[in-house]
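F.,

This is the one I mentioned.
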């Protein structure tokens, strides 16, 4: 069972790893296909273009050779005609050199045709015809130098023109074959381009399909991550709300415990010690003059009882001053400032404006604890010489301003102390947030600290209101008189 649970617990992690692997492979495949398609298109374009250029160059070379051969054949016939018509003395040597030059050029052009691999049958038929033609015209300058005009005319018409026409037909067939070869090359070029286009279209289509699959899987994966993020965010928010509720509940429990303990100290131990003090005082009155030692011991006991009463009273006030519950917020804050001034020697100034007797208990507790924590921080860290506390109440807002002229604090972007940030400011802000208020902190090194607490009273439910003044009769031997500001 444990093994199966362990496997089941590790399965989501394997799925996430597999999803990432699939995405990586998918994107790699898409990129590989795109790169391969680009390289293949470049290669096919290069090969097909080179084949087309080679075929076109071969056709031009063949056509140039055919044109030169045709020109040489016609020039040879013209030179022979000019030989028969001319009466110059050097016409024989001129014809000989002209025919030799044309024959040499024809040999080079014929070799170029054979190297170009044109129509083999036409080329094979052309060589004997050219040899026969040159064999016919080469000896004319010697053998027919004295031939008359009519014989020369018949020779030209019957021999020269006939062979020249036959050679022209052979050259024409070679030209036709070259044109057909060029057209075939162009057809193959078009077919290869179409085939390459189909291949590239297939690759691009495959790339598009794969990209769609990868994008769909990516969207699904991202959607899953988003749902997981939302779920985790909701869990964090729920945990935060639960922590806030727990913190608020702990504060309530702490205040209730302090209140009960303060009452027990005051009503139980304090009253018992007060009665003990009274009884010792009565016993002192009943002693005789000769009982000096007994009177001394009773006086010492009364002194210890008085000191114990003061200690219990102080403990009760520190835990939760009964002034806050019995007389209200303003007397409690006045006593807090007086005690702070007496203990620290820092000059304190307290002002109040429009504070009513009826306030929600949560607001009173929040204000008292915030002022108490601010005075504690001032005494411990600020090194101030003067502190001002002002409380103001309007129709919908209760405001507390605490200001000192101490050394100040360096704040971060969240308006919290950058260094030595304890839990005091956080606790004050949690108390303010608990009652729907806001705690502002303004400070800079060397310019003191200002704390502002604002609590909207309109948001307070009516059942939270507590009437102050139900127990207004205080015992003078327990509570000190409040000092007005």
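My design for it:
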């Amino acid at each position: 069972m444990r093994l199966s649970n362990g496997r089941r617990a590790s399965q989501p992690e394997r799925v996430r790893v597999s999803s990432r692997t699939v995405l990586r492979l998918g994107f790699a495949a898409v990129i590989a296909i795109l790169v391969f398609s680009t390289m293949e298109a470049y290669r096919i374009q290069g090969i097909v273009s080179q084949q087309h250029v080679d075929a076109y160059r071969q056709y031009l070379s063949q056509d140039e050779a055919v044109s030169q051969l045709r020109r040489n054949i016609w020039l040879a016939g013209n030179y022979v005609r000019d030989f028969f018509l001319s009466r110059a003395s050097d016409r024989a040597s001129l014809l000989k050199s002209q025919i030799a030059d044309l024959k040499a050029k024809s040999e080079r052009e014929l070799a170029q045709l054979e190297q170009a691999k044109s129509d083999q049958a036409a080329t094979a038929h052309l060589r004997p015809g050219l040899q026969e033609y040159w064999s016919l015209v080469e000896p004319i300058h010697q053998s027919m130098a004295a031939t008359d005009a009519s014989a020369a005319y018949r020779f030209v018409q019957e021999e020269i023109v006939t062979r020249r026409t036959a050679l022209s037909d052979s050259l024409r067939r070679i030209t036709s074959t070259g044109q057909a070869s060029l057209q075939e090359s162009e057809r193959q070029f078009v077919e290869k381009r179409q085939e390459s286009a189909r291949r590239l279209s297939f690759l691009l289509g495959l790339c598009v399909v794969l990209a769609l699959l990868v994008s769909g899987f990516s969207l699904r994966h991202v959607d899953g991550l988003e749902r997981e993020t939302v779920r985790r965010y909701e869990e964090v928010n729920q945990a935060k709300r639960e922590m806030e509720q727990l913190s608020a509940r702990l504060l309530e429990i702490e205040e209730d415990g302090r209140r009960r303990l303060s009452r027990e100290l005051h009503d139980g131990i304090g009253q018992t010690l007060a009665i003990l003090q009274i009884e010792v005082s009565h016993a002192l009155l009943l002693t005789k003059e000769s009982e000096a030692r007994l009177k001394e011991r009773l006086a010492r006991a009364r002194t210890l009882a008085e000191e114990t009463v003061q200690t219990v009273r102080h403990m009760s006030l520190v835990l939760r001053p009964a002034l806050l519950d019995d007389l209200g917020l303003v007397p409690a804050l006045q006593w807090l400032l007086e005690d702070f001034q007496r203990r620290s020697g820092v000059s304190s100034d307290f002002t109040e404006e429009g504070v009513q007797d009826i306030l929600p208990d949560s607001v009173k507790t929040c204000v008292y604890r915030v002022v108490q924590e601010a005075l504690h921080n001032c005494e411990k860290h600020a090194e101030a010489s003067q502190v001002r506390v002002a409380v103001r109440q309007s129709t919908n807002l209760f405001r507390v301003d605490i200001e000192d002229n101490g050394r100040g604090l360096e704040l971060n972007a969240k308006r919290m102390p950058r260094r030595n940030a304890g839990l005091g400011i956080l606790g004050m802000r949690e108390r303010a947030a608990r009652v729907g208020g806001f705690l502002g902190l303004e400070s800079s090194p060397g310019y003191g600290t200002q704390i502002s607490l604002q609590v909207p009273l309109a948001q307070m439910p009516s059942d939270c209101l507590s009437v102050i003044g139900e127990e207004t009769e205080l015992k003078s031997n327990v509570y000190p008189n409040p000092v007005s500001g």
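The first helix runs from residue 2 to 85.

Talk soon.
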